[in-house]
Specification:
Length: 129
């Protein structure tokens, strides 16, 4: 359920609105992630082989959200991006940057979204659910 809510919810919504977003350009997608991210296991996204742990599942889902932001930014080639929600949705920085991770009103390094193979594998896994 956590995978469906925190990962697939973002994925499906953005995927379903793709044509509307393109037609409405300039448009923005702002995903809310977390600094507390990590531990993504692409071979066990739904904790079917591991014992479920709420904290690990949450961290994994937030890593996936960051990675999917990078995947959609590359696939949609938008003119605007996502990040610290209200700031990026209302300020010029949102027009200048896409597919990045922001925290505390600044771009922050996100090693998860830089792993292109893992980003694409996650995107493909969500596409096939």
């Amino acid at each position: 359920m956590q995978f469906a809510t925190n990962i697939l919810g973002y994925f499906w919504m953005t995927d379903e609105f793709t044509e509307i977003l393109k037609a409405s350009a300039p448009s923005r997608v702002v995903n809310v992630a977390s600094y507390w991210a990590g531990g993504l296991d692409l071979n066990d996204l739904e904790f079917k082989r591991r014992n479920y742990d709420n904290d690990k599942a949450y961290r994994q889902s937030k890593q996936a959200d960051r990675m999917l932001s990078a995947a959609f930014a590359e696939k949609l080639k938008p003119f605007q991006g996502a990040g610290t929600p209200v700031w990026l949705a209302t300020r010029p920085i949102g027009k200048e940057t896409t597919g990045r991770y922001f925290g505390h009103l600044a771009e922050t390094n996100c090693p998860f979204s830089q792993d292109k193979l893992a980003v694409n594998a996650l995107y493909d896994a969500c596409s096939n659910v």
